[in-house]
Every structure is written in C-alpha cells, then in structure tokens.
Amino acid sequence: MLGDYVWMKPEKKGQFDVAIGAQVVKIAADKLSVVDDEGKWQSVALSRILKVMNSTSIEGMDDMISLGELDEASILRNLFIRYKNKLIYTYTGSILVAVNPYQCLPIYTAERIKLYQDRNLGELPPHIFAIADNCYTHMRRDGQDQCIVISGESGAGKTENTKLTLQYLAAISGRHSQIEQQVLAANPILEAFGNAKTIRNDNSSRFGKYTEIHFNPDGAIVGAQIKQYLLEKSRIVSQANEERSFHIFYSLLDGLDAGDKQRLDLVDASSYKYLTEGSTAKYDGRDDRPNFSDIRSAMKELVFSDSEISDILKVLAVILHMGNIEMEAHTIDHLDATQIPNMTHVERIGKLVDLEPAAIVKGITTKTIIIQNEPTVSNLAYRDAVDVRDALAKGIYARLFVWIVGKINSAIIQPEAGSCSLIGLLDIFGFENFDHNSFEQLCINFANETLHQFFFHHIFKLEQEEYDAEGIEWNHIDFVDNQDCLDLIGKKPMNIMSLMDEECMMPKGTDQTLLAKFNTAYSKDKSYLKPTRHKTNSFGIAHFAGEVYYDVQGFCEKNCDTFSISLIQLIELSGNKFLRNLFQADIIRISQNNKRSPSISVQFRTSLESLMKTLSLCQPFFVRCIKPNEQKKSMLFVRGLCCRQLKYLGMMETARIRQAGYPIRHAFQEFVGRYWCLSGLIPPSKNEDKHERARQICENVLGSSGDYQLGTCKVFLKIAGDLHLEQERNRILRNVAIVQRHIRRWCQRRRAAAIVIKRFLLAAVRHGRFRAWRSFFLIRFRKLRRQLILFQKLWRTYLANKSVNKEDLGEQNLQNFPEIPQSERTEEIEGTMETPVRVDEGVRLRDKPKGAAGECRKSCPPAVAEAEARKGGMAAKQKKPSKFRNLIRWKSMEGKTPNAQSAALRGWEAANNGCQPWTTSNAELPEGELAPELTKDSKRKSVFLRENGLPTMEKAPREETMITTALIRQKLRRT
Ligand SMILES: Nc1ncnc2c1ncn2[C@@H]1O[C@H](COP(=O)(O)OP(=O)(O)OP(=O)(O)O)[C@@H](O)[C@H]1O
Predict the structure, then answer these.
(1) CATH code assigned to 439-443+480-561+597-612
(2) Helix (H) or strand (E) holding 342
(3) Active site residue 204
(4) Listed residue (628, 614, 726, 711) closest to 675, CA to CA
(5) Does Nucleotide-binding count among this protein's keywords (predicted)?
(6) d(CA 563, CA 682)
(7) Which of 131, 251, 252 is nearest to 203 (CA)?
C-alpha cells in the first residue's frame, strides 16, 4: 500500500550488505517507487521487496529486544533511525549500544545527571548515565564489585563514554572531595602522554586502560587505581602519514615559554624528526598551547612536584634531540660502523641529563657482548645504530609513561580502600585491521579476542549453562566460539606468542625463520591463514571480527624489546637521578646478571590474564561503541561500516539471546528479602518456604506476563519484569515512607515539646524564675477562686433578697432621701447597733422586739460594744443593711479614741469583704471634716459605704459617689 514501509533486498551482495528499509511512494503494475532509508528514490521490481516492515521497526525502539523482527537489518535500521533523531544510545537488554555522534549533544548536563540518578534501567531513555547509575546502585545494593567493559573500534567513542561514566560517578557519589578532582585530573595527563592523532581518530588512546574507582560503604569515592596496557611506543619514532606522535610533544613545544624552551634547547615541532614523520604537526580541533597549561595544572592537582615536572620536560626534550642525532655509515678495519658527524644534539642531551657526549656516542654506535666472561665491544652498522638510538628513545618514553601512571596512582590510591567496593572501567583498544598490521595489532587483537570471549562467556555460555542447571525453558541459540583463535595466538602450549619468544632466544632467529615455523606448526589450524601470493611476508588469523594478515617484519625485535646492556650502562652513567630512576628495574636486573627481561608478549599476556581475573570477580556491564563513519563527520551513518561493527561485536546474537533469555536473576532468599513487601505486609520468617513466597510475589506483580521463570534456586527475570517489580516496590516503599514520616514527625514533635518544657523548667529553676511562675499561677488561681466565691455570694444574696420585701427596705435613691428626724435616727441607730439581725433571715429591723435590743444594750456597756465592733466580721454581718451603716458606725464611735475608730472600721471592712461596697477615696473627703484621724492613718485608703443596704457588683457611678460623700459630710456636720 502507498505509504507503507517495506524491506528491500540490498543492491550488492557483500559480507556486510543487509536489507534496507524503504517507504512506498508510488505503485505501478510490476514496479514500486520507493524512498529508501538513505533518502534515495528508486523504482524497484516487486521481486526486490522482501516483506512489509513490522511497526516496531518503523519508528525504532529504545531496546532492540522489543523489535518485532530481530535480524541484522532491523537492528541496523533501529540504530540508523535513532541516530538520525540524535538518539545515539540504544539498549539491547542491559547492554548499551552507543553510536558516536561526532558532535556535542546537550545530553550530558547536570540536569541529566540528576534525572538518571536512582532510576532503574529502562525507566528513562537509554543513556551512558543509566548504565553508570545501575552499576553504582548494584554495587551499593549487593556490595559486589562492578565493571563496565567499553569496547569498539578506534574512534567509536570508548574514551568519551569512559570519561562520561567517570564524571557521572564523581557527581553522584556526593562527596565532591579532592580525590574526585584528582581522579578526573588523571585524564588530561594520560591523554597527553598516551593519546595521539591517528587516521581513524584525532584523539586515539594508544594504550589500554583499566580504571578502578573505590567507594566507601556510604558510596563516596575514596580512591582510584589506573592500570595501563601496552603503550604503542613505536609511535615515538615513526608515524603513518597524517598521524602524529603523542600529544605531549606538540603541547610542550607550543605551550612552553621562551625561557624554558631555551633552557631545554627546544624550538618548534617542525624541527624534530620524531615529530614530522606523519607531516601533521597541526590539525583542526586541537589547540596544543592551552592544552599544555591544562596538563601542568592537572599535574599540580596530582601532586607532581616542580622538580618532577622539570625532569619530565627534560626527558621529553632528550627524546626529541635523540631523534635529531644524525648518523652516517662508516667502515673501521673493513667492518661496518657508524659515525655521528654533528655532535650538537648529542651535546644537548649530555647537558640535559648530565652525560658525557662520548659515552652517548659509544652507547648508540657500539655494542658490548660478553665472550668468555670478558666484555667485548664491537661497532654497529648504520641500520643497527639507528635501531639502538630509536630503542633508547622508545625505552625512555615507555618507562616515563609507566612512571607517570605510577605517580598518578600514588596520589589517588587510598591505602584503606582495600575494604571498599569498586567499579572498574575498561577502555581498551578496539579490534584493528589495517592495510599493514604488525606485532602491536596482533597483541591488540589478542586482547580483543580475550574480551570477546569474556563477553560471550557471560552472555551465552554461562547463561545457557545456568538455564540448563535451573531447569528454565528456553530456545538454545548458537554462537561462534572464538576459543580456537585464542588457543592459536596465546593459549595452547605451542602458540604463536610462545613461538615468537622461542625465536627471540635463538641467536640466529629472524622474522623469516619465525614465519616459516608458523607455517609448519599451524598448517592444519582452522584459524591460521598461510601467506598469500600478495602477502608473502605475512600470516593471517581468522579473528571473530574477520581475517587479519600480519606482516612479520620486526616481530622478533619488537617482542624481545631489546634494550641492550650497553644502553642500560649508559643510563647508569647519567647524573640525572630521575632518568636513572626510570630504569631502576633494568639496572637491578643487569646487576643480578639476569640479562633478559620478559618479552613483550609474555608481559602482555600476564597483564591480560590478571585483568580477566579481576573482571571475572565483578558483575559486568557492557557498552558497545559504534563508529558511524570513517570521516569523523556528524550525522553520517555508513551502513556497511556499522553492520560490520555490529557483527564483530556479536550484537545480533546478543540481541537474540537477550530477547529469548532472562538477563536478571536473584536467589530466592535475596529475591524474597527484597520484594516481600509486594505480597502482603508480613516480612518473611526464617523458616518460610522462600520458593513459595517468590512464586506468590511474581504471580501478584507479574501475573502471567512471561517476564519471569522460577528455577530451582533462582528467580529469572526479563528486563521488563525486573523494572515492573522495582517500580511496584518503590511505590510501596514511598507510601510506607509517607506513613513513617508522619509517625516520626509526631513522635519527634512530642519529644521536642517535652524537651522544651524540661529545658524551660530547668532554666526557670536555675534562674529563680520558677518561683515567679509559681506565684504567677497562684495569683491567677486565687483570683479565679475569689471570683467564684463572689459569684456564689451574689447568687446567695440574690436568693436571700428575693425573699425580702423590697418596700420595707426602702427603695429610695440618694437624691430624694428624706431628712431623718433626730429621734428616729437615734432609735434607728441604737436599734441597729444593739440589735443584731441576720440579713439572710429576711427580717426587718423594725420588726424585731425592741425589748431584746434594749436588754442587749443595757447588758452591753460601751466598752463591750466597742470590742464587739472590733471583732468586725460577725458584728457587721449581723447588722441590717442600711444606707446609713457608716454613719451609724461613726455615730457609735463618736468620742472613741482614733485607734478604736480605726479598729472598728477595719472590722467593718473585713466583714464587708467581697460585698463590693461603694468606695470613695480619702482624698475626696475634705481634710479635717471627716475623721481627721482616719485620713492620717496611712493604711486606710478608703471609706466604705453601702448602697441601699444591698450588696452590688456594680461600681458606684462617680456622681453618686460625690453625692454620698456630700451626704456623709452633711450628716456628720449635723451630728
Ligand atoms: N558521546 C560523544 N559525544 C560527542 N562526541 C563524541 C562522543 N563520543 C565520541 N565522540 C567524538 O569521537 C572522537 C573519538 O572518540 P574516542 O576517542 O572516545 O574514541 P575511542 O573509541 O576511544 O578511540 P581509540 O580506541 O582510538 O582511543 C572523540 O574525540 C569525540 O570527538
């Protein structure tokens, strides 16, 4: 149908040509017009159309194993579609495929780092940060060492992804300490001394690197260690066209100031033979001058001392001068010899490292051999002398590089880091197949074969063996095992490398005799390819990534790493301690009469074995880097090149096995321990059947999705199943955390409140405030009690008054109060004073029998009455409430001593306590008119009056008070 996507057969039938996707734009009778994935319009016969494309392949998927059709064409298209959309990362299960974008993408920001933190694999779009985070999480969760193996061709992006991983780990580990800065600072130094521009990559690592990052139990970086493998030291003396030597030389010559340059007798890069072989001292995209200052500051960060930096610069200058030593063929006594016509550079070297020029000349133009325990010196032919000179330069640089790595390690390795967990990052040279391959390529490809086996061993062999052992149902997938190839190069007893070693020991061993031995020994080996007509000096090996032919020229010399005794003796003569120190191990070896150092192949195999041992102890993650084009251009995806890399990396088989298999597995105990919260709220007991509980959890959460299988000891999960379980667990834990947070907050607040009170009381007691607070509360309590009593009183009074005839009590206000005749008043006074009547009895004074009162008066002489009045409360209480109570009182107290008057008043006042009398200030009473003694009495502040004889809560209005005061005056005057 129009608009449909289809698969088309490839035009060519090459090894790496696979079906291409296309969209149908026109349909004719026997032809289709299509636009293919590369944007080409084509009119194709129906026979070229293979099938309609699966919907998953049209837009592309984050994870290859989700593709509906899993073959080379769909995997390649998936990468292509995503690459076009600047999505350079894609998963194949837990394996990350990274296509080099050759441009800066805004996907490595601090926000991205935060985004990927604590996320499960597959939760977010594929990213190198997701792998790094997963690795970190696994390390912390399981306490197991982890490693990330980053592989791919030269220029595929291994080093960039290693750096990004390192930056991510430094960012999330959270301590931001000096050690993190030091670990990051190691990179520019290593790149300067170990990287160079090659045809394939402008910043190619010419050594393998395994970086171990050590973390403490809190997940913070506490140290690191770097291991280096097989530096390509031949680059020091020669480079292919358009290639350069190691970056440091160009940075040094561009970045050094004039004074330093003069001191080292250095000029610009174009003046040095060792730097001009490739005729590209400068290239776009690299500025060597600022790089040099970066390198120096990185060295400072890693505690390189000034004298060490100065010595390093001297050694580099020596290497450059060495390359410029010109030699001429010469004969002495009819024997080949070499002479040095111009001694300028020899003298410069001598000056820099404190060596006699004659000793240098002797060292590089002659050789010392021991014959019958006697050292015999012979001249070297021109070619041999050049080789010795170059060997000296290479030897010095290789040892300098080892020393620099050691120096970095001494700054970043933490002695206590032994007990910590680690994450290892392996950035090792990819598979190499050039037009001309030599000994180095053989070693590099051997390392790649070993890593490939590690990868396949992990992905296939172990996986299949484990499925079988656990009784998991799945379809077996065939894969190509590279064991034969490994055996041929370096594993079986008589392998290529051991034959090389043997040949190096032979006095007459040459590269040609070595090749002849290979041809004889491996003529029947499937992986060995005999020299062809065009490649007579080469042998081939059928690697997992294709056939590679190696030119044997220089094999023996490179493998033996001949660094003659004469040269070691020359170094020993140097007054430069740093230089002598670089050769310390060789000097010791020579002094112990051990003439031979282990061959390069032996050293390489030993370090490779140790690396594989380390990796096998870790939980590995794999990042497979793909180089999309050879031109280093952005947005250019060359299908053939990518397809080749996918094949070499075993991505097709990987995708299939990952799709069919269960990459994540947990022992029952561990699984139940982690996910028990997904099957109710009861934690697993010790004796519980963990298999049954694991089954319950899987059924609860994953149902019949097929994302899991239960083995005999383990739960096997697909990525999707694991992701789902993790998400569910996180959801439940989040909810639990919310509840816990509330409870904790409540408890915390209670505890905090108790602490505050306790603190306050302690402080109060300490500062004497406790009493103040106590009295404060007591005052409040008493006030409250008084108010209650008052209310009680008022209520009772009210009840009592209710039963009293209000008319008889005389409801007259003060304004129209009638004049009281003298007689009446006296009687009243007398009656009142002498006849105690209880108010609450509700009996009027006048109603009481006068006789009783009279008798009382008679029986009570004035002294007794006074005493009565002094008693206060009782007497006053018994008096009938009256407007004139005070007058009566004063009347009755007339003629008494001021003290008696005052006492009577106090008694009265006490009796009226709580009755809220009218009060008027003494000050308002005219001085001398009313009880002058009273006003003089400082304790008395008020005269108490009663209103209508009834107790009241209301305060007297001001005018009434004044009237009352006037009335008192009037009454008193009258009396
Ligand atoms: N993720 C990326 N983003 C931007 N540019 C990248 C990325 N990855 C790689 N590159 C570019 O590709 C170049 C080559 O990458 P890198 O040096 O990492 O390759 P390599 O695989 O380590 O090569 P070699 O094996 O030669 O060291 C880098 O210098 C950089 O310009």
Answers:
(1) 1.20.58.530
(2) none
(3) yes
(4) 726
(5) yes
(6) 71
(7) 251
- pLDDT tens, residue by residue, 392-443: 999 999 999 999 999 999 999 876 655 689 999 999 887 888 888 999 899 9
The yes-or-no verdict on residue 560 having pLDDT over 80 is: yes
Q: How far apart are CA 280 and CA 261, in angstroms?
A: 21
CA distance 870 to 889: 12
51: its two tokens:
């099938």
- List own/partner pairs for 375-384 with CB under 8 A and 24 or more apart: 378/335, 379/332, 379/335, 379/336, 379/337, 379/338, 380/336, 380/337, 380/338, 381/329, 381/336, 381/337, 381/338, 382/327, 382/328, 382/329, 382/330, 382/336, 382/338, 384/338
Number of the ligand 1 atom closest to the C-alpha atom of 104: 4
Mark whether 594 is an active-site residue: no
156 CA: nearest ligand 1 atom: 21
Q: Name the maximum alpha-carbon separation found in the chain.
A: 177
- Residues in contact with ligand 1 (CB, 6 Å cut-off): 100-102, 104-105, 152, 154-160, 201-205, 429-430, 625
Q: Measure the CA–CA gap between 752 and 960, rounded to whole angstroms.
A: 58
Q: Is 154 a catalytic residue?
A: yes
| Three-class secondary structure of residue 132 per DSSP | helix
Fold of 664-794: Alpha-Beta Plaits (3.30.70)
**DSSP classification of residue 178:** H
Question: Nearest 5 degrees, angle CA 53-CA 54-CA 57?
Answer: 90
Count of alpha carbons within 13 Å of 300, Cβ hemisphere only? 6
* Alpha helical stretches, state H, 523-649: 555-560, 565-573, 577-582, 584-591, 600-616, 639-648
The answer to whether residue 877 scores a pLDDT higher than 60 is no
| Strand pairing report for 918-921 and 41-45 | unpaired
Where are any strands of DSSP class E within 409-481? Answer: 421-427
The verdict on ipTM greater than 0.90 is: yes
Tens of pLDDT, residues 355-404 = 999 999 999 999 877 676 777 888 999 998 998 999 999 999 999 999 99
How far away, in angstroms, is 448 Cα from ligand 1 center?
A: 18
Record the tokens describing residue 349, joined without a space: 């070297």
> Exposed, middle or buried by CB within 10 Å (0-12, 13-18, 19+), for 575?
exposed
- What is the Cβ-side half-sphere exposure of residue 795, based on CA atoms within 13 angstroms? 6
H or E segment and range at residue 152:
strand 146-152
Provide the annotated binding site for ATP.
152-159
Mean predicted confidence (pLDDT) in 184-198: 94
Q: DSSP letter at 880?
A: P
What number does the ligand 1 atom closest to the CA of 157 have?
18
Residue nearest ligand 1's atom 25 by CA: 154
Per-domain boundaries in the chain: 5-53, 439-443+480-561+597-612, 664-794, 814-974
Distance, CA of 945 to CA of 966 (rounded, Å) = 13
Strand 708-710 versus strand 714-717 pairing type: antiparallel
pLDDT at 741: 85
* Spatial separation of the C-alpha atoms in residues 765 and 782, rounded to whole Å: 23
Q: Which fold has domain 5-53?
A: SH3 type barrels. (2.30.30)
Contact indicator for 832, 892 with CB cutoff of 8 Å? no
